[in-house]
Each structure stands twice: as structure tokens, then as C-alpha cells.
Amino acid sequence: MKIYWILIVVCILLSMALSVFIQVQQQLIITMNNKNEKFTMTFKKLNKQLSNLDKVKVELVRLTVFAQEETKDLEAQPVPDVDKQKQEIDACRAEKKTKADELASIKQKHAEIAANLKSESDAWEQEIQSLKSHISGYRPICDHVKNVPLAVKLCGTKNKPVDKGEKAS
């Protein structure tokens, strides 16, 4: 009779351990999903910033081309007031230089954001892969679980064949 009581207690303990294990796995899945959502939001935010910077870059390039065309037009026109024209040309060149500096700054920010996004993306991908491998791996506790489809799904597959005599009662 003692053997039955011991067997019942062992079964209850194993059932409790298995339920705790399943809850921990569910928490890991929830955590992974939350991290994935945060990564997606960050990616969208950075992508929006990147598109805004691209728009600014296009506008600056357009303004630079416009400034170059205006400079050529001013240089081509014979003007009786040369000093005034020289001042305007100098002002245009100074503006062109500031726009070129802004463009260089934006290109640098673009490169930094792209590098940052790439590094974060790689880090998240590594984290996701490690969590997937951890969740999908076979655990020794699964040797003591009944051969139920849900338990088999949660435990994964075992590389060695299972003996028919090792099934839990």
C-alpha cells in the first residue's frame, strides 16, 4: 500500500513540476512577443526618420542645383554694377557652402541611423533565434510526460527512440 501512496505523491509532484514548466515556457513566449513588438515599433520609427531625412536630402540637392544654376546665370550676365553682383555671388556661394555642409551632416546622420538600425536588427535577430532554439529544444522532463499530442508538441522531438516500457502510467 505504501508503494501506491509513494507512486501517487511522485505523480502529483511530477504533474506540478510539468505545469510550472509549461507556465514558464508561456511566459518566455509572451516576453519574446513583447520584445518583437518593441523592435517593430522602433524599426517603424527609425524608418520614418530615415524617410524624412531622405526628403530633406532631396530638397537640399534641389536647392544646391538651383543655386548652381543661379550662380551660372549671374556670372554669364554682363552687369554694370559689378560690386553688387560680386556680393550676391559671394552670398550665393556662402549659402551653397552651408547647404553642402547641411547635406553632409544629413548624410552622416543617415549613415549613423542605418548602422544603428542594422546593429539593433542583428541583436534582435540573435535574441529571437536563441529564444526559439531554447523553446524548441528537447528537455529531460519530457521523458516523464504522457504521450499526448499537446505534450509532444510542447516538449519537441527527442533524437533517440522512446522505449514503450518508459511511458508514464
TrEMBL record:
The keyword Signal applies. Residues 82-134 form a coiled coil. Residues 1-19 form the signal peptide. Keywords: Coiled coil, Signal. This is Uncharacterized protein.
